[in-house]
Amino acid sequence: MQLHINGSLVELPSDTRVSLLDLLRDHLALSGTKKGCNQGACGACTVLVDGERILSCLALAVQYEGRSITTIEGLSTDGALHPLQQAFIDHDGFQCGYCTPGQICSAVGMLGELRRGLPSNVTIDLANGSVPLTRDELCERMSGNLCRCGAYNGIVDAITEFAETSK
Amino acid sequence: MSIKDTAQAVMKKAVQIAPDAWMPGGTPDPLIRQKHGLIGTSVSRLDGPEKVSGTAQFAAEFPMESMVYAALLYSTIAKGKITHLDTSAAEAAPGVVLVMTHRNAPRMKPAPAFMSSAKAAAGDDLPIMQDEEIHWNGQPVALVLAESQEQADYAKSQIHVAYEVASALTSFEKAKPNSEPGVFQGQPLLLEIGDAEAALAAAPRKVDAVYRTPRHSHNPIELHAATVGWNGDDLIVHDASQCVTHAAWSIAEVFDIKEEQVHVTSPYVGGGFGSKTLWQHQILAAAASKVAGRPVRLVLSRKGVYRIVGGRTLTEQRVAIGAQEDGRFDALIQTGVVAMGRHNNMPEPFILPARSGYQAKSFRLDVEAARMDMLANTFMRAPGESVGTFALECAIDELADSLGMDPIELRSRNEPEKDPTTGAPFSSRHITEAYTSGAERFGWAARNSKPGTRREGEWLVGMGCATATYPYYRMAGGAARLTLTKDGRATVEIAAHEMGMGTATTQTMVTADRFGLAMECVNVKYGDSHFPGVVLAGGSQQTASIGASVIAAHRELITELIKLAGKESPLAGLDPDEVIGRNGYLCKSDEPERRESYVSLMERAGRDQLTAKGSAPPPLEFTHWSMHSHGAMFCEVRVNAVTGETRVSRFLGSFDCGRILNTKTAASQFRGGIIMGLGLALMEETQFDERKGRIMNPSLAEYHVPVHLDVPEIDVMWTDIPDPHAPMGARGVGEIGITGVGAAVANAVYNATGKRVRDLPITLDKTL
User: Fold this and answer.
1) How far apart are CA A105 and CA B458, in angstroms?
2) Most CB contacts within 10 A, which of A156, B136, B424, B705?
3) Are B290 and B97 in contact (CB under 8 A)?
4) Interface subset of A 15-34, CB within 8 angstroms of B
5) Measured distance CA(B267)–CA(B255) in Å, rounded
6) Nearest CA in chain B to A42
7) Mean pLDDT for each 10-residue chunk of chain A (167 residues)?
């Protein structure tokens, strides 16, 4: 029983109650993924599973056998920051830094959803097939990631810049 | 008046009339004159790479050998006694190492309650798991330690507790008749100048209304947590703390050991806003660790945070203003009641803004506290000002409306020349400039003063403004250690904190400018109780406290350096006031070619490193001068005429906070405060069940905070006028952002709809 985390093969825990979040934080010392509520309300624990964002606090680790997980630690390669991580620094898209890994992972997943043309609650033309990245689309789709310091403006600017330069 | 009160009053008077030059800040910080350094530029956070890559280490992320995990069980009654406690099933559950209750917890003293002494850090001074008494609904009654979090959580569910319920006072209405005078920072929250009630009655124009604000929870996204371990009688606490020195001293008091035996570290804090002080969890974790003989990690659940970490209390405020036809105030009255726990002293001081905000012929300002059987309430971002400005600034808007006068003009007519209640001169007050520039940038002139007249489809559109204000503070006890090494690098060590303000970055800039070094040559170390200084990250005072401490240490270091460099140095015989640092050199201020590099000075001194410690002078400056920051807050809202939903479409904060040190992080502080203010205005409320004394919405799903889609682009600007009497000319920017926002939004909602909402939050049911 194994899963891939940031490219490494990892054994699943024997205790089936262990959440994916606790597997990362307590068993694997990958504490970049944060615990803010443990009940799916804050988004701090967001990770990518085969490229799609999930809340790891609401996921049991054993459900993910054979899947490929990317955490914030897996976004940077050989110590070089991912361009979105750099954009967060440039635009001051965080203060305390606690929600930040979740915001960044969520943004990566969110941009994938946009590319696939998935509509959101604010999408005006559902039949169009492609969804433009407006400010409202971005904010609606990122609203599951809370930032109590209120770095939202910087986060939006960082994601927008990254999305535009990586087109 | 007691002897102590009399002595305090005499001391205060003496400080007020003493010559300026005797005061800290009497001679302006030389950095204020310097215009071409790092101060005032935009610098990205130095700890940014750690934060965005997930390598910044928070309290619950410190590994410890053979560590166990804790879970807490909370009382379900507000008052009474534990009559039955069965822990046998929990003790027999897999992986359990310890079940701790009042029966087997070590004997501990109550923790010193915040403000009861200089380094007291605790939310209350109740016994901590020492007896069967229950004092609030949510009090910890048992703690489980197990090899894994899952095992601890399961075992906790197997504990059975029965109570004998006593009658608890959990209704605010029932508590109000017995309310007591509020006392804050040793001073009564009561101020009377003239006969304000008579002046109100006689005034030709008046407003008189009651405003209500609910309980609030800080809700930093990082859960409160501690990883603790004992080494003999020495305790290490990896904490999420905005007061490491206070926490170390207070924990030492609890366990009756020496302050030095408790080492508190807190390199990163995942948001605090007043909540990351000392609550029962750190102490219970340490106690359990002592009993079990194993290191312990205790992470509160989100519900647990609501159970044992207090929040902002509710307020009920009457504001009455009596005015002349031209708008000048004859009477300013702000009185009311707040709820308060039985074992803490934090009467939310909502009258603070009215003490220095406006000129009036008479004042009556009074806060009373109604004690209730509830979790201790505490400080939350801009305690007093955040909710006090809501009532005061709405009342001014109401008066302006009734006079048919622009609210900015009304404020300007009541602008004081000196502090209206103490008579002290203002150190620096440029609120009028903030309003003028803000109004222009926001397009205030386009506002239609008649409410409910601008409609776009379903949406009613309106604009409002309000004054933001927060005082300059500097608390006693600041101290820092500076080390200069032979390669010309400087290190600052101070027990300060980083919880998002950008402390290390800003202080690196300031220290680099002070020495005349590049930023790369300066290292600022903080977040450790073994460093010097008692530096609370609160009251927006940390920057000033660090600044004054580093100034003192720097003076010591430079004096010593020049002395040790000897007679051959070009700087021989100069005193620290005669030199400045520039480009890696120390120079004579008025003769910059007379200079020597730090590397060369250290070589002459024959030292690998030179260390000096300095203590900040007693904080007398804000008694001598009236020192306050201000902001002009402008808001545009759209209120849906069908659903009643309010959306903030534009917001501008125009600030006068002295000199801005790092434009990037300061702008984020302003915006963050404003966004928390939008939460206060529109959605935030900790719901307290008055029947059971239990918080009913202890989760981020049910306590609503602003999310991405709630927040428009927030515009911020500032006067950047240095305060000549504050270190670096800076008055602090952490809290002012939340002040005035509630009123700016409420005033905009009135302008949009004609509905005056005096009860926060402005939910849709109140605008329909």
Assistant:
1) 37
2) B136
3) no
4) 15, 17-18, 22, 25-26, 29-34
5) 24
6) B700
7) 95 96 97 98 98 98 97 91 98 98 98 94 87 96 98 98 92
Cα B592 from Cα B569, distance rounded (Å): 14
A97 touches B at CB < 8 Å:
yes
Axis-axis angle for helices A135-142, A152-165 (nearest 10):
120
Closest alpha carbon to B51 in A103, A158, A37:
A103
Catalytic sites of B, residue numbers = 735
Q: What are phi and psi of B158, to 5 degrees?
A: -95, 5
Cα atoms in the Cβ-side hemisphere of radius 13 Å centred on B719:
24
Could A148 and B707 be called an inter-chain contact, meaning their C-beta atoms sit closer than 8 Å? no
Q: What is the token pair recorded at B739?
A: 């002040």
Cα-flanking dihedrals φ and ψ of residue A136, to 5°? -65, -40
Q: How many residues does chain B have?
A: 768
Instruction: Give which of B258, B251, B402 is closest to B324, Cα–Cα.
Output: B402
Structure tokens at A18: 């262990």
Q: Does A42 touch chain B (CB under 8 A)?
A: yes
Would you say the C-alpha torsion B604, B609, B613, B614 has a positive or negative sign? positive
Write out chain A residues lying below 8 Å of B61, CB-based.
25, 31
Alpha helices in B404-541 (DSSP H): 407-413, 431-442, 503-515
Stated pTM of the model? 0.98
- Amino acid B656 reads D
Q: Does the distance separating the beta carbons of A99 and B51 come in below 8 Å?
A: no
Which among B467, B419, B204 is positioned nearest to B329, based on CA atoms? B204
B699 touching chain A per CB within 8 A: yes
| Residue with token string 């949009």 | B752
DSSP B44-94: --TTHHHHHHT-SPPGGG---TT-EEEEEEE-SSSSEEEEEEE-HHHHHST
Specify burial of residue B282 (Cβ count, 10 A radius: 0-12, 13-18, 19+). buried
Query: pLDDT tens digits for B643-689?
Result: 999 999 999 999 999 999 999 999 999 999 999 999 999 999 999 99
Task: Give pLDDT, residue B331.
Answer: 98
CA angle B620, B654, B727 (to 5 degrees): 25
- Chain A interface test: which of B42, B44, B53 (most A C-beta within 10 Å): B53
Q: Which amino acid is located at A23 in the chain? A: L
Q: Which residue has the tokens 């609904």?
A: B137
Positions in chain B short of pLDDT 70: 1-2
Chain A touched by B667 (CB under 8 Å)? yes
| CB-count burial class (<10 Å; 0-12, 13-18, 19+) for A167 | exposed
For B318, the token pair is 């009457």
Strands (E), B204-344: 205-213, 225-231, 234-239, 262-265, 296-299, 315-323, 329-341
Q: Give me the sign of the Cα torsion angle A155, A158, A163, A166.
A: negative
Look at B51 and A153 and tell me if their CB atoms are within 8 Å: no
How far is the C-alpha of B344 from the C-alpha of B338, rounded, in Å? 13
Cis peptide before B724 (omega within 30 of 0): no
Q: Is B742 exposed, middle or buried (0-12, 13-18, 19+ CB in 10 A)?
A: buried
Provide the residue type at B401 as one letter. D
d(CA B575, CA B588): 10
Q: Which two tokens stand for residue B203?
A: 């005034």
How far apart CA B278 and CA B226 sit, in angstroms, is 11
Residue type, B105: A
B183 φ, ψ (degrees, to nearest 5): -125, 125
Which ipTM was obtained for this model? 0.98
- With a CB cutoff of 8 Å and minimum separation 6, the contacts of B176 are B316, B337, B370
A61 touches B at CB < 8 Å: no
Of A89, A97, A152, the CB nearest to B711: A152
CA atoms within 13 A on the CB side of B354: 37
